[in-house]
Amino acid sequence: MATMLAGIAQFERDLLSERVKSGLAAARARGKKLGRKPGQRPKSDKLAPKVIKAVAEGRSYRWIARDLGISKNTVTEIIKRHRETA
């Protein structure tokens, strides 16, 4: 009995997965953009001038991150955005 219920549950799960995939494909076909939208960056935008100044002084990304209390990846992203705009 348990095996039969498990089989039905798996079949239902497969149907659900198939419906979701077809819905996403239809949305893509309509031109809908999927995924997470870019968000606000208030902390990194506020610290950007300090990061750029520290990089110009020759500081390492790790030192800057530790000193300002942000991650090294955030420092890298700030520098990448700065180089794109410059």
Radius of gyration over C-alpha positions, nearest whole angstrom: 24 Å
Give a quick account of the main beta sheet: strands, pairing sense, barrel closure. none
What's the average pLDDT? 93
Number of strands: 0
| Span between termini | 68 Å
Q: In terms of per-residue confidence, which ranges show pLDDT below 50 for 5 or more consecutive residues?
A: none
**Total count of domains:** 2
The proportion of residues forming helix, as a percent range, comes to over 70%
Shape field: elongated
Strand content: under 5%
Number of helices: 4
**Helix and strand composition category:** mainly alpha
Helix-strand pattern, N to C?
A: HHHH
What this model shows, in words?
- This protein is mainly alpha-helical and 86 residues long.
- The chain has 2 domains: 35 residues; 44 residues.
- Helix content is 76%, strand content 0%.
- It has 4 helices and no strands.
- The longest helix is centred in the N-terminal third of the chain and has 28 residues.
- The model has no long low-confidence stretch (mean pLDDT 93).
What is shown here, in short?
The protein has 86 residues and is mostly helical.
